[in-house]
Each structure stands twice: as C-alpha cells, then as structure tokens.
Amino acid sequence: MVSFPQREFLECILVIENSIMESRAISRYNRQSARKIRKILNKVRGFKVGNAISYLHFSPEKASVVIEKTIKSAVANLMQIEGNNDLDPDSIQIKEAYVNQGPVMKRFRAASMGRASKLRRPSSHLTIVLTTEQIKG
User: Fold this and answer.
1) How many Å apart are CA 18 and CA 15, to the nearest integer?
2) Fewer CB within 10 Å: N-end or C-end of the chain?
3) Residue 74 lies in a domain
4) Contact 119/108 with Cβ under 8 angstroms?
5) pLDDT higher than threshold 50 for residue 4
6) What is the SS3 assignment for 129?
7) How many CB atoms lie within 10 A of CB 32?
8) What pLDDT, in 10s, does the model give residues 49-105?
9) What burial class does residue 127 get, using C-beta atoms within 10 Å of its C-beta: 0-12 exposed, 13-18 middle, 19+ buried?
10) Nearest 5 degrees, angle CA 70-CA 122-CA 41?
11) Chain-centre distance of CA 49, in angstroms?
12) Domain tally for the chain?
C-alpha cells in the first residue's frame, strides 16, 4: 500500500496563502534635483498612505507635489491588482521610497566680459513601493 500525505494537510497548505499585496509607481524625468526631492521623501518614508498624503498636500515644497502624485498612482496600481476599490488607506504603508539622479541638461548663459557660464538643469527618477503588510519600525 502506497502512503500519501493526508488530505487535511494538503488543504491546510492551500488555505495558508500570503495576502500581502505590493505595488510600485515610478515618476521619471522630474525637473528637480534628487537632493531636493530626497529632503521631503525622508520625512514621509514609512508613513501610512493617508498620513503621507495629508502631510504632502499641505507642504509648501515643490517636491511634495511630485511625491503626492506618485503615491496616488501607486495606490491606484494597488487597487488595480486587488480588483476592488474598498481598500482602507490606513492599511497601506510606504515600504520603499527612493529617488535617483536622472540626466542633466547642460546649457550656457551669457556672462560678463563676453564669457559664457554653465547652467546645470538636473532631473530625477522617483520610485514609491507600497505594501499592505504591517512594517515594524
């Protein structure tokens, strides 16, 4: 007689399913330096989505607009994956948030005595990862 695993054991494995969802949103070629965006991003990293959006909405910084739009896009991506729109914003948390340097546009401007001075117009790429998992910290 061949010994097979018990049926209850197999059903238990099927029931134990990981219901943690993650979503990502990337905003590329933002016309601001990564250093200035990182200053605001460090304040909201690890926040719940509702708290982060309310903080960014009333922040006077230019970078807060880009970060808020990217977080809202990541929430929309998470709802698309989940398939329903009844997610609580306080159950979603910012898992990762980082900004990288993008390409730099180099321009010249007329300076005194017939010279030219360099202008650097930096850009950056912003990435936000959200999760429904409760992060300790």
Assistant:
1) 9
2) N
3) yes
4) yes
5) no
6) strand
7) 19
8) 999 999 999 999 999 999 999 999 999 998 887 676 667 778 899 999 999 999 999
9) middle
10) 35
11) 10
12) 1
Q: What is the pLDDT of residue 17?
A: 43
pLDDT for position 37: 97
Q: Within a domain: residue 61? A: yes
Does residue 10 lie within any of the structural domains? no
Q: Is residue 7 part of a domain?
A: no
Q: Using CA of residue 72, residue 73, residue 74, residue 79, what is the dihedral sign?
A: positive
Position of tokens 């943690």?
Answer: 20
Which residue type does 31 have? R
Residue with tokens 């018990």: 6
Between CA 105 and CA 125 the distance in angstroms is: 14
Determine the pLDDT at residue 8. 43
The CATH number linked to 118 is 3.90.470.10
DSSP 8-state code for residue 123 = -
Bridge partners, residue 30, by sequence: 124
Q: Hey, what are 79's tokens?
A: 């709802």
- Residue 136 is predicted with a pLDDT of 65
Q: Are 40 and 137 in contact (CB under 8 A)?
A: no
Contact 24, 129 (CB under 8 A): yes
SS3 content of the chain, % helix, strand, coil (to 5): 40, 30, 30
